[in-house]
Every structure is written in structure tokens, then in C-alpha cells.
Amino acid sequence: MKPTILVTGGAGYIGSHTCKALREADCLPVAYDNLIYGHKEAVQWGPLEWGDILDEARLEQIFQAYQPEAVIHFAAFAYVGESVTDPGKYYRNNVAGTINLLESMRRHGCRGIIFSSTCAVFGEPKMMPIDETAVQNPINPYGRSKLMVERILRDYDEAYGVRHIVLRYFNAAGAEPGGGIGEKHVPETHLIPLVIDAALGKRDKVEIFGTDYATADGTAIRDYIHVTDLADAHVKALKKLRRDDTSDHFNLGTGIGTSVRQIIQRVEAISRNTVPVRERQKRPGDPPELVADPCKALQYLDWRPRFSDLETIVETAFRWHESGEFRVT
Ligand SMILES: NC(=O)c1ccc[n+]([C@@H]2O[C@H](COP(=O)([O-])OP(=O)(O)OC[C@H]3O[C@@H](n4cnc5c(N)ncnc54)[C@H](O)[C@@H]3O)[C@@H](O)[C@H]2O)c1
Ligand SMILES: O=c1ccn([C@@H]2O[C@H](COP(=O)(O)OP(=O)(O)O[C@H]3O[C@H](CO)[C@@H](O)[C@H](O)[C@H]3O)[C@@H](O)[C@H]2O)c(=O)[nH]1
After folding, report:
1. Dihedral over alpha carbons 87, 89, 91, 97 (to 10 degrees)
2. Which of 324, 14, 9 is nearest to 176 (CA)?
């Protein structure tokens, strides 16, 4: 029997890519998603169970039906700006929803969870690159909701023996190299899909938020990590959880920073089109530079990014956006 893994948010961007990787690793991924932001067409490697993590009775049904060996927990709201204007929505979904999930796990003796955290838990770090010892001081409710869950996970480990691996992604990007699934957030706020849409003429321009940062070209620097590499890290984390039965946390990035202008140039090169830009003020709360120190993940997760060079990230994202839709590969 294949091990069953409950994947909350499995119809979303990173969740659907992880379901594919789980299936390739001979697991059965059960996607649990309320489809608020997910896409049922993205669920191709196991069943889709419609449901909300805020719905305790539905969670109970799912745990009874599948008795999952472990949970990979992506379901959350992730719009930083909205989290500032509507924090209650974020704490309820991201924090209260996670507590429901943990309670179901506890009741059913499910003792392992992999949690999607973010580099936003570090706020505006003083030292670059950011390793796992950096001070955690998030500057918006989204980042704080994720940090709260990190703390709650520690308490559940200590009190009930529920083990966790926290994976703090930097900027997820790119699309499945086979082309069947990719990034479709509605509304889209992420840089790479917006720049690609401008190159494809689906938007009239892209806005550059801040051109006077203290960086080489004045625009903000991020660490873009290919979604397929992130998916692989979840499979590796699952193996580690099984093997070691201890909780841990990892920063997931490449260690390489890329500026907004460098992204635009790369999209222009791949699309052979000019991307019209408009220079704007900095977006509030955007740090100038966020780059991971991935050494701990490289050493202890036995993980190597394979698709995260800028060329492959932009190329796979461009091909997927050009075709425009999910399809079975
Ligand atoms: N995309 C990034 O760059 C990035 C970076 C760091 C962390 N993260 C985190 O990774 C996770 C996945 O991000 P993504 O980009 O794939 O987002 P996404 O919106 O594509 O996926 C999230 C999924 O969760 C579902 N969902 C939300 N609330 C739910 C609820 N209450 N019950 C059931 N399902 C619910 C949505 O319908 C969606 O399918 C999130 O937790 C996000 O905070 C993302
Ligand atoms: O139209 C745009 C959109 C973005 N940016 C800039 O591009 C960079 C990347 O922005 P974006 O793609 O929106 O990602 P982040 O704001 O870095 O946030 C993402 O990455 C975080 C981790 O770094 C996650 O926690 C969030 O969920 C996820 O949205 C930032 O400097 C933005 O200011 C622009 O200049 N123009």
C-alpha cells in the first residue's frame, strides 16, 4: 500500500507541484482544498477532497476516511497587503485553521506535518544571506501568522509528540518542466507572471516598485526558487521525518539574489519582446534584499535545486503562461 499523505492546499501552485512529486515518490497525495484560490484541473496525481481547514467536521471525515501517514500543509492566505488591511482573515485562516488540522492529526495519531512557512517570518533582516539562526521579526500580519504557527508546532511537538518540519520558502517561481501545471494566482501579484503577461501583451505594462534601493541597479533583490525544486524538498522532508522522527526547520532558496530589472531582462530575452515598465514608489513593507543561506537544507535534507537557475525558472514559467491552461501530461 502506498503511504497516504494529506496535502492541504493541494490544488494551489506549490501544492499541486508537490502532489506530482509525491506520486513520483510512490505516495498517494490526497489534496484537501476549498478551491478559493486553487484549481481542480491542477489536481492530477491523487483524489481531490473539497473542504476547508476551518471545518472541523469535514476534517474529521477526511482523517477517518484516509488515515494519512503525514500532512503537508500549504492551505493559507498569502497576500501580504491584504493581511495588513484585514488581519483577522489571516489569523483565522492561517492560525486557527492550522490548530484545527493539528487537533485532527492528534485525534487520529497522525504524527508528522510539513509546514509551508516563508522568509517573511524574518522581516527585514540585518544579515544577508539569511540562515536558520536569523532573528525572526515579521513586519506584517501574514508573516506573523506564519511565525505563530511555527511556535504552535513546537508546542504540539513537546506536548503531544506531533513532529514537524518547517520549510521557509523564499520566492517560489517557475512551472512544471513538462508544462502541465504552473502558477495561476487570481489575482496575480507575483513579479514573474506579471512580467511575462506584459511580454505576451496580456497586460500593457509592469510596474517596478522602487528604483532607489541601495542595490546595484536600484531595484529589490529576491531569491527565486523553482517550484519543482520546492516540491522535491517536501519529499525529502517527508523522508527525513520518517527516518529521524525529530522536528526541524529549513530555509529554502538558492543563495543567489536577482533584482527586479534582471527578471525583466531575462523575460525580454526569452520572449524576444520588450516589456513596457512604469517606475513606481516602493511597495510598503518590501525589504531591499532577501536571499537564503540554503546550507542547512543542502546538508541535512539531502536536497539540491536542479531547476532554479534564472534561465530555467523564466523559461518554464514563460512556456506555461504562453499555453495558458492546465493540462494532463
Ligand atoms: N508562492 C510563494 O512564493 C510562497 C512563498 C512562501 C510561502 N508560501 C506559502 O506556501 C503556501 C502555498 O502557496 P501558493 O503560492 O501555492 O498559494 P496558492 O494560493 O496557490 O495555494 C494555497 C491553496 O490553499 C487553499 N486554501 C486556502 N485557504 C484554505 C482553507 N481554509 N481550507 C482549504 N484550502 C484552503 C487555496 O484554495 C489554494 O489552493 C502558502 O501557505 C503560502 O503562504 C508561498
Ligand atoms: O508588479 C510587481 C510585483 C512585484 N515587484 C517586486 O518584485 C519583488 C518580488 O515580489 P513578489 O513576486 O510579489 O514576491 P514577494 O513580495 O517577495 O512575496 C512572495 O514571496 C514571499 C517570500 O519571499 C512570500 O511569503 C509571499 O507569499 C510571496 O507573495 C519585490 O521586490 C516586489 O516589490 C514589482 O516590482 N512589481
Report:
1. -170
2. 14
Provide Rg for the chain, Cα atoms.
19
How many C-beta atoms surround the C-beta of residue 274 within 10 A? 10
* Of residues 62, 12, 8, the one with CA closest to residue 31: 8
ipTM confidence? 0.97
pTM above 0.90, yes or no: yes
Number of Cβ within a 10 Å radius of residue 211: 17
What residue type is assigned to position 257 of the chain? G
Find the catalytic residue in 13, 32, 142, 156: 142
Cα(93) to centroid(ligand 1), Å: 11
19 Cβ inside 6 Å of ligand 1: no
Centroid of chain to Cα 110 = 23
The finding on whether 35 has its CB within 6 A of some atom of ligand 1 is yes
pLDDT digits (tens, 9 = 90+) for 104-138: 999 999 999 999 999 999 999 989 999 999 999 99
Ligand 2 pocket mutation, candidates 118, 191, 192, criterion most atoms within 8 A of CB: 191
At residue 324, does pLDDT exceed 90? no
Query: Is-catalytic flag, 66?
Result: no
Q: How far is the CA of 318 from the centre of ligand 1 (A)?
A: 21
Instruction: Please give the Cα distance from 230 to 224 (Å, whole number).
Output: 11
Return the SS3 of 161. coil
Q: Tell me which H or E stretch contains 152.
A: helix 141-160
**Residues in CB range of 28: below 8 A, 6 or more apart:** 2, 3, 4, 5, 22, 46
What is the CB < 6 Å shell around ligand 2?
A: 78, 118-120, 170-171, 189-191, 194, 206-209, 220, 222, 260, 283, 286, 290
Angle at 277 between CA 274 and CA 280, to 5 degrees: 170
